[in-house]
Amino acid sequence: DQHNALDALSQEGLSEEPVQLERDTAGSGGEAAAIREGKGKNPQRRSSGKKKDGSSIKNRKKKKKGLDVDDDDEEDVEVWGRCSMPGDENDDIDDGEESETERSGGGERQREHPFIVTEPGEVARAKKNGLDYLFHLYEQCHEFLLQVQAVAKDRGDKCPTKVTNLVFRYAKKVGASYINKPKMRHYVHCYALHVLDEEASNALRRAFKERGENVGAWRLACYKPLVAISAAHSFDIDAVFNAHPRLSIWYVPTKLRQLCHLARSSSQPSVAAATVAGSSSGSAHRSLGGSDA
Amino acid sequence: DQHNALDALSQEGLSEEPVQLERDTAGSGGEAAAIREGKGKNPQRRSSGKKKDGSSIKNRKKKKKGLDVDDDDEEDVEVWGRCSMPGDENDDIDDGEESETERSGGGERQREHPFIVTEPGEVARAKKNGLDYLFHLYEQCHEFLLQVQAVAKDRGDKCPTKVTNLVFRYAKKVGASYINKPKMRHYVHCYALHVLDEEASNALRRAFKERGENVGAWRLACYKPLVAISAAHSFDIDAVFNAHPRLSIWYVPTKLRQLCHLARSSSQPSVAAATVAGSSSGSAHRSLGGSDA
DNA sequence: AGAAGGACCAGTGGTCCGTA
DNA sequence: AGAAGGACCAGTGGTCCGTA
């Protein structure tokens, strides 16, 4: 029905058209519009429909609020890379069998193109996304957080300091459907390295690209230099994140924290020994494997 | 079976005996003991048993951790008030019909004595608790938080900055069964006033005691001076809380935040008008009533 | 009636695993 | 095979309301 151009915008170098959602209700309501919840979009959110047993036993009165901005603001996204990227030819990017019209037409359940390891400044081709684009997503989330914070402050609501579910929901609402929580959490530490030591990050990217490694391998390799950086702050990775304004809005990934902790106890055998003897810790030896390895 | 002296300790001026829980396992496990979860205590936590439909469909692997300290440390609680309180007679406090032995004997489901409005330094009698005791509970929570934080840091876990569920659980575990979340949240703003302007807080207590007001009335009266204090920080009550080390560990109560927000929009009619015209807020006019009034 | 707190609920952080 | 993300789950913040 409505031109669901949403998914098409996830394309690198294809977001020419400004995002416009739910234009219809803009300017209609004022206070009411700002507070109203669903607006009819996403009617079946939280549709698990299996855990809860039908009726909600007690109908407590709960005022729900929701953020729900009217996004008249064209979401000044101004295609990423357009400023910093070389090679700006916009057409022959889509060289596969799936044509542009084909994509925006059907309901084929699009996903983002997978990432590949690119050098700084390099544009990914052939249905791939590059790492500059990945990092740009983090900057976008930061902007979304700022907007969410502004609304919260204005309304006197509790103001998030981190990129929370609320921010991801907001991103969806303003049309950034290509941003989602699992993805952003997955690569946070890669972004952290990029922010904390861009030189090292760039070198790692070049090395892994040259070796033909895949994204997963590069991602894993990002842990080590971060642990090294944390060493200068006695392995307190939270302190490292919090000290940097662009990082402080991101939760420290569990595995990174564990690695730093492990490195700390390994680097201080006396402390580790005393700790075990005193039975106050030892948790550094928990498995760090799991599906993330 | 075991002397469940837990509840008895909630008595003001009765906590002579040091808290000792689960002594048996102390010193046995070291690392294992520090990580182990339930230790058999509180077997049926989260016993709602109505919402979830029996089997948990997918048996995902989830490593649960838990804090679970071995509390050999006698929980240096050193009865509150014993230092600052006048009138230290310990015996005729219990002048009701329920005797000391009667209380610790049966399974009568004890609760804390209700609070009454007391002057600073005044000891409550006749099965009542005073406000100095109330405020002392907040200090205790702070100590518990410090301990939880120490353990978390030592284990490399995520470290809470606020009094969270984890802290309340810890309090229970080390025997402070008289601390619970609803109570602490209920009176946070009263404690805030005590911390931010002890003079004003004391004056309010004296006034309300003299007038014979009940605790609920006093509690409600605590909001107003706090809003006034927030005014000096442009009604940013979060900033006020965060600026004070003893307050920053407490979540700002919803109603207090709403009242400050309301006061802000009332104090700046031009801003409020512009805001309504521009349809970006107006939420200040939400109901502040509810069951808290 | 006034008050303490067990227990509930909506929405969170975290990430698994069915999907493509 | 490698990767993106819908959807799930355990435990959170918040506080209602059955209890005493």
From TrEMBL, chains A, B:
<comment type="similarity">
    <text>Belongs to the FLO/LFY family.</text>
</comment>
<keyword id="KW-0804">Transcription</keyword>
<keyword id="KW-0010">Activator</keyword>
<keyword id="KW-0805">Transcription regulation</keyword>
<feature type="compositionally biased region" description="Basic and acidic residues">
    <location>
        <begin position="101"/>
        <end position="114"/>
    </location>
</feature>
<keyword id="KW-0539">Nucleus</keyword>
<protein>
    <recommendedName>
        <fullName>Floricaula/leafy-like transcription factor</fullName>
    </recommendedName>
</protein>
<dbReference type="GO" id="GO:0006355">
    <property type="term" value="P:regulation of DNA-templated transcription"/>
</dbReference>
<feature type="compositionally biased region" description="Acidic residues">
    <location>
        <begin position="88"/>
        <end position="100"/>
    </location>
</feature>
<feature type="compositionally biased region" description="Acidic residues">
    <location>
        <begin position="69"/>
        <end position="78"/>
    </location>
</feature>
<keyword id="KW-0238">DNA-binding</keyword>
<feature type="domain" description="Floricaula/leafy DNA-binding C-terminal">
    <location>
        <begin position="103"/>
        <end position="267"/>
    </location>
</feature>
<dbReference type="GO" id="GO:0003677">
    <property type="term" value="F:DNA binding"/>
</dbReference>
<comment type="function">
    <text>Probable transcription factor.</text>
</comment>
<keyword id="KW-0217">Developmental protein</keyword>
<feature type="region of interest" description="Disordered">
    <location>
        <begin position="10"/>
        <end position="114"/>
    </location>
</feature>
<dbReference type="GO" id="GO:0005634">
    <property type="term" value="C:nucleus"/>
</dbReference>
<feature type="region of interest" description="Disordered">
    <location>
        <begin position="280"/>
        <end position="293"/>
    </location>
</feature>
